């Protein structure tokens, strides 16, 4: 075929499914008219064409709910604009609960949905039956109803987006596979097709289930893989009421959709089946394809559908469908710029909710590209939340057999996956296990979350109320403030920057005045140009022209990408996270303990808060710095891997003389809240600036260098910030009553004025703590005298304002 392609463009979007068409439309609408969309076959030919077409707003997280609400409104608007039909039918949707725990989950989701004005009605059993008269309701506890939800034609939605994109100036070219993505100096340069090359500045991978292997070919990690997804369509059913709401029965892994007198019954089951398992790769020519029937796999869920909707038992099956749908390691989308290649963005990984999500996902992708940053808290959807190992075939193929089921599984607080574990274990892993460690995943590491006591099992018993690990955290936090606790900090991200210009570059990247003195540390943030907080970290001067950066375990790829994006290539940058183990000993007896295993002087006069130095522990050279994320006197000890087990054993042996206890991540998270310390990804993100977060003490306008975000901060400095960080505690609360997490609405009387970002129960202070943000003309002090509430699972609890952290910061300066 002889075809003339444009030779250049601003953006090439690869993939003509619903996501690609949405990105192209939004890019052009926001001003980037020079956008080309290339589809290897025909629009919708990947997975879009066989989607069930459910358009629901209520998601497992607040971020997803927000994007799905936008999608619904967009599709309605574009129908009018294009004069094409999306097939949208807003017949509502019901999600039922057949256990008390599921009802708790639904009520929490419905509560969070109020933050975005999503209309959600809580139903009792009678109301469920009224709305869905053919349902078997004997085991139902209740449910939620979204009257504006419904269903749409996936092909219709895509065509509407495609036409709207063309109306804005986008060129859409089908039957044009991209053979190669062209990269120069780590940045997008263009794409190569059989019909010619297109030079471009940006590429968007909206390539669905092909994305992982496309990324692999150019050294980019895109962690998703397709499973087989099943549904049946019945023959016309004589007595089936018309316009029934969509029905979701999570406990039985079912969704049911009435359409033109027939019923579609689909499943999201545990122990899902990998697609293309033998080859481990999606064929390039797999268009409009289906898999052979696997009735044995589907039958147990079909039986469950008969119990939920008895009239199905006598219905004939017109179509048995099995086709591929891609899933990610945590059932969240993959959006944003990749860590490996500048100006290469992804918009994929929708975990079977692409029709409901793509409108909003396309919008934020376009904004991300045009602005160069995000001003919303979207880290839970950012592709850079993952590391390289997440996209390996071994990891991802095993993990997605679990995460497909997670879509309808219980979204328990603190839930841990059981597949693809033990990717990286600590040198003393077995010793921690003997101490009773219950492990969770932190980055790539197996890390103790808590330690079982009194011969209890080191295993989570999931709940939306009292947590079975509370007795452990009570002991661990109390022992830390009275004696000494040993904390595992090895997963913290650790980078080193070396070179003559290292200090100047860090001054440009960071907001604080970075101390250029060996052994001194600086707590700081890095910003985007709009002043949004991109990273939260500590910088330590190790030697002359040699600095170490410590940040969160979960943000390893994200933080590294941000630093490298702005760092001069003349400097040496190295990720040393896996080279050093880090142990924290915190508490009033920590100085006594470390003084017994090292001959160095750790007295306050010689080793002040924030200092660091090399010391010897039993002839092992280690770096020790006096910092503490739990707010107590304490020391972080950085040890070479080869020496880690021996040093750990020395600490534990001597620790017996100081009542040392092993302490997990839950204890540390509780104590950092007692100390008023914020956590990036929960309490701070690009959506916040340092003035709103109360972190303006980490800004230095005195340093001469023009650091990233400075101009925006100067403007923000003069503003009155009605949105700001707040610390709350529930009046007369008990452990787990209620269980505070995040995304709970904060009320002033009967009006929502904010949302929570973190929650924990403090056993040391007997308070149920919550961090969050409020937007109000009243000061926090004034709010403290008013009627404030936090709503959890549709119940409002009175709260009081904590004007200062519970823990006196002087304790860590002793």
Automatic annotation (TrEMBL):
Keywords: Oxidoreductase
Top-level taxon of the source organism: Bacteria
Keyword Oxidoreductase in annotation: yes
Residue ranges constituting the FAD dependent oxidoreductase domain according to the UniProt record: 10-368
Keyword Oxidoreductase: yes
SUPFAM superfamilies linked to this entry: Aminomethyltransferase beta-barrel domain (SSF101790), FAD-linked reductases, C-terminal domain (SSF54373), FAD/NAD(P)-binding domain (SSF51905), Folate-binding domain (SSF103025)
Domain Aminomethyltransferase C-terminal, chain residue ranges per copy: 723-805
Family membership noted in the UniProt record: Belongs to the GcvT family.
Annotated GCVT N-terminal domain residues: 429-703
Domain FAD dependent oxidoreductase central: 371-424
InterPro entries: FAD-dep_OxRdtase, FAD/NAD-bd_sf, FAO_M, GcvT/YgfZ/DmdA, GcvT/YgfZ_C, GcvT_C, GCVT_N, TrmE/GcvT-like
Originating organism: Pelagibacter ubique
Full protein name: 4-methylaminobutanoate oxidase (Formaldehyde-forming)
